[in-house]
Design a protein that fits this description.
With 479 residues, this protein is α/β, with parallel strands linked by helices. It folds into two domains: 135 residues, NAD(P)-binding Rossmann-like Domain (Rossmann fold, 3-Layer(aba) Sandwich); 275 residues, Dihydrodipicolinate Reductase, domain 2, CATH 3.30.360. Helix content is 31%, strand content 22%. The strands form three sheets. The protein has a nine-stranded mixed beta sheet with strand order 16-15-14-13-7-12-11-8-17. Strands 3-2-1-4-5-6 form a six-stranded parallel beta sheet. The chain is globular and about 75 Å long. It binds NADPH dihydro-nicotinamide-adenine-dinucleotide phosphate and the ligand O=C1O[C@H](COP(=O)(O)O)[C@@H](O)[C@H](O)[C@H]1O. Ligand LXAUTJHC binds next to helix 8. It is an enzyme of class 1 (oxidoreductase). It catalyses: D-glucose 6-phosphate + NADP(+) = 6-phospho-D-glucono-1,5-lactone + NADPH + H(+). It comes from Dyella lipolytica. Belongs to the glucose-6-phosphate dehydrogenase family.
Length: 479
């Protein structure tokens, strides 16, 4: 790696403390980013020493395996500049930039356009001839189709699309990346990965967390914008896309966009058949009593923001015609349970009755543990020819392999210029195009309530085809 500067705009914020700095610290400890200079930039008129103390405290709290000796090496990479998001003030960064430099917008989303413009006006979008410049943008990219398009225009005034790395941290998760490897590196999968063999797909991201300290952001966003529009749509398109002709970031992103373009549009008339929203009321999780969303600090007593969203998507192409894809995510649910679960169609009935062949499921589990489960029917040991369900499990973690957090993966990719796991604008745009009619419809009316600690609103059932059941959140997917 050539000497590179990473400027973090918004360096006094939560993301920097909790996720970016711990990731950078670990990459440094592993010897992967020795030539990286990290410059924090924020409004606070801090000295470099003050910034160091701030980050030291953050790492003590959030970096697993924090060690003072390692910190003493890492701190030498750090620097700080205080200023507003204005070109004349940003210009103070000039002498700190290597020919290769990237700017990370760890800022409130409303400031992405302002910051990109100010960096451009300061002349930072164009590097010297022997270097490159990149802009890493956090999520969410816009709040609907129109605002995302406006933001794109603002960014493109100074930055080329190839320079912009839009983060979706789910693309840095092992399970997400494994979807691509597992699907395309195994001979037996591709021939059955289609409507002829697959009955339904369920993508669930359930959290026990509530709104925590993010009321100001979350109450404006809601579950559809916070989780479905970005993270779950990515899992969806990676599950459904066609095999790549070439292992290349642009080809991959073309394929994901193809999926989104093939989704049957949801309209004002069909929203209720395709989308359900919920909001948690007071409830119990184990012995803990939980307040309802409207009683959380910072949330309006009459807020209609959804804390749960479920979608039924249908893809009208040769591969998937007739297969419903169910996506859902919510806060304050019964467990931290997340997976992509693919159910195969039933086998024909020419088996002895006692075999009871159940449906096969292929499950890519994200939480509570990352692992793959294949649910099959095998013979029950004994004299009779009877069947029993068996789970073939492949755990993810292995003592022989280092694991990297999503932010470690993506920061490394950003430094190396690998765009594979970042979003191209048209992916974001298509996801907004599909979901904006739902957001529009949800501007009025109220969400369906569910008790905190439960499976979510019972109305989510209405999205399912006859014979399909939601997998149980409380029992990590078991029936
Ligand atoms: N926190 C998280 O867990 C995650 C956050 N994200 C995304 O990361 C981004 C940052 O989030 P987060 O760190 O939580 O937000 P915070 O509000 O904690 O921090 C944002 C940063 O922006 C600065 N800032 C705020 N307003 C201005 C302004 N008007 N001018 C200049 N700087 C300003 C803040 O400075 P100051 O401290 O002075 O206000 C702070 O440094 C968001 O886009 C969020 O969606 C994504 C995934 C997870
Ligand atoms: O982006 C977000 O993701 C988290 C869930 O992701 P995880 O990797 O932390 O499990 C979610 O809690 C948050 O609301 C959302 O903004």
């Amino acid at each position: 790696m050539a000497a590179t500067t990473l400027v973090i705009l918004g360096a006094s914020g939560d993301l920097t403390q909790r996720l970016l700095m711990p990731a950078l610290y670990r990459l440094h400890a592993l010897g992967l980013t020795r030539d990286l200079r990290i410059v924090g930039y924020a409004k606070e008129p801090w000295s470099r020493e003050h910034f160091e103390r701030h980050i030291h405290k953050a790492l003590q709290a959030f970096a697993p395996d924090f060690k003072e000796a390692q910190w003493n090496r890492f701190r030498r990479q750090l620097d700080y500049v205080g200023g507003e998001l204005q070109a004349d003030q940003l210009f103070a960064l000039k002498d700190k930039l290597n020919p290769d430099a990237l700017f990370y917008l760890a800022l409130p989303p409303a400031l992405f356009g302002v910051a990109a413009t100010a960096l451009g006006e300061a002349g930072f979008a164009k590097g010297p001839r022997n270097g490159w410049r990149r802009l890493v943008v956090e999520k969410p990219f816009g709040t609907d189709l129109a605002s995302a398009q406006v933001l794109r225009e603002q960014m493109h005034a100074h930055w080329e699309e190839e320079q912009i790395l839009r983060i979706d941290h789910f693309l840095g998760k092992e399970t997400t990346q494994n979807l691509m490897v597992f699907r395309f590196a195994n001979r037996f999968i591709e021939p059955i990965w289609n409507a002829q063999h697959i009955a339904q797909v369920q993508i669930t991201y359930a959290e026990t967390l509530g709104v925590e300290k993010r009321a100001a952001y979350y109450d404006k966003a809601g579950a559809l914008r916070d989780m479905l529009q970005n993270h779950l749509m990515q899992l969806f398109s990676l599950t459904a896309m066609a095999p790549l002709a070439e292992w290349d970031a642009e080809v991959l992103r073309n394929h994901k966009v193809e999926v989104l373009r093939s989704v049957v549009p949801i309209t004002a008339a069909t929203v209720d058949a395709h989308a359900v929203r919920g909001q948690y009321r007071a409830g119990k999780l184990g012995r803990k009593t939980l307040v309802g969303y409207r009683s959380e600090p910072g949330i309006g007593r009459g807020s209609c923001t959804e804390t749960f969203a479920a979608l039924r998507l249908e893809i009208d192409n040769w591969r998937w015609h007739g297969v419903p894809f169910y996506l859902r995510s919510g806060k304050r649910l019964a467990s931290d349970y997340s997976e992509i679960a693919v159910q195969f169609r039933e086998v024909p009935g020419a088996l002895p009755k006692a075999v009871h062949a159940g449906n096969n499921w292929m499950i890519f589990r994200i939480r509570p543990t990352e692992q793959m489960d294949l649910l099959v029917t095998a013979k029950r040991p004994g004299l009779d020819l009877a069947g029993r369900p068996v789970v073939l499990t492949a755990p993810y973690a292995s003592p022989d392999h280092l694991e990297f957090s999503a932010y470690e993966q993506l920061l490394m990719d950003a430094i190396e210029g690998d765009r594979t796991h970042f979003l191209r604008f048209d992916e974001v745009e298509w996801a907004w195009r599909l979901l904006t009619p739902v957001l529009d419809a949800w501007q009025s009316g109220t969400p369906d309530f569910y008790a905190a600690g439960s499976e979510g609103p019972s109305t989510q059932k209405r999205l399912l085809d006859l014979g399909h059941l939601w997998r149980s959140i409380a029992r990590n997917g078991d029936a």
